[in-house]
Design brief:
The complex is a heterodimer of chains A (111) and B (115).
Chain A lengths: L4 E3 L2 E5 L4 E6 L6 E7 L6 E6 L5 E4 L2 E5 L5 E6 L8 E8 L7 E2 L3 E6 L1
Chain B lengths: L3 E4 L2 E4 L5 E7 L5 E7 L5 E9 L2 E4 L6 E3 L9 E3 L8 E8 L10 E2 L3 E5 L1
Parallel strand pairs in B: 2-11
Antiparallel strand pairs in B: 1-3, 3-8, 4-5, 4-9, 5-6, 7-8, 9-10, 9-11
Classes of the chains: A mainly beta (111), B mainly beta (115).
Chain lengths: 111, 115
């Protein structure tokens, strides 16, 4: 059973389009992190959300944590080829314990 | 400041061979992790360590062993390699439990093929 479900699994869009990817669970998380992984490299942290309903913006990327802290979304405005990569969400349950990773959304932005 | 480094970058093993994947971090992090990443399967935790001399099993530890004799190094040992261990292996470190105030820093990965 996958604790964190990410959707869609794959997404291929044209440059300039908007998109949203989702990270859902039936469990509550104390915090949730989004990582981006480029081909041939390790994941790199984009953002951490902690409070239910929290919205964080990172240039063209907007992250939201659900009110009940069971889900999160990542919205990208005017996607660019540099946004191409695998987007992973990872949840923490409490102040101790390992992160639980979703399977990821593989995004391809074509020029 | 190199962060997390891993060697080798690529390796092909024959069934039954053994090898050690090296991982070193220079951030003085107490917490270190080994993950494997299979296509479409995300990251699965193999082993982790919360400090020198302390290691513990993750989600998929079978077929692997680790040791943590120093803060900097966390090698992963594969004994009797099997085709099911073909994967990309990532080492990561963090200052404390990753989550609200801490991120995990990942190495560039080791791509292992077992034939």
């Amino acid at each position: 059973t996958q604790l964190l479900e990410q959707s869609p699994q794959f997404l291929s869009i044209q440059e300039g389009e908007n998109l949203t990817v989702y990270c859902n669970s039936s469990s509550v998380f104390s915090s949730l992190q989004w990582y981006r992984q480029e081909p041939g490299e390790g994941p790199v942290l984009l953002v951490t959300v902690v409070t239910g309903g929290e919205v964080k913006k990172l240039k063209r990327l907007t992250f939201q944590f659900g009110d009940a802290r069971k889900d999160s979304s990542l919205h990208i405005t005017a996607a660019q080829p540099g946004d191409t990569g695998l987007y992973l969400c990872a949840g923490a349950r409490g102040s101790q314990g390992n992160l639980i990773f979703g399977k990821g959304t593989k995004l391809s932005v074509k020029p | 400041n190199a962060g997390v480094t891993q060697t080798p970058k690529f390796r092909i093993l024959k069934i039954g061979q053994s090898m050690t994947l090296q991982c070193t971090q220079d951030m003085n992090h107490n917490y270190m992790y080994w993950y494997r990443q299979d296509p479409g399967m995300g990251l699965k935790l193999i082993y982790y360590s919360v400090g020198a001399g302390i290691t513990d099993k993750g989600e998929v530890p079978n077929g692997y062993n680790v040791s943590r004799s120093t803060t900097e190094d966390f090698p992963l040992r594969l004994e009797l390699a099997a085709p099911s261990q073909t994967s990309v292996y990532f080492c990561a470190s963090s200052a404390a439990w990753a989550g609200e105030y801490n991120e995990q820093f990942f190495g560039p990965g080791t791509r292992l093929t077992v034939l």
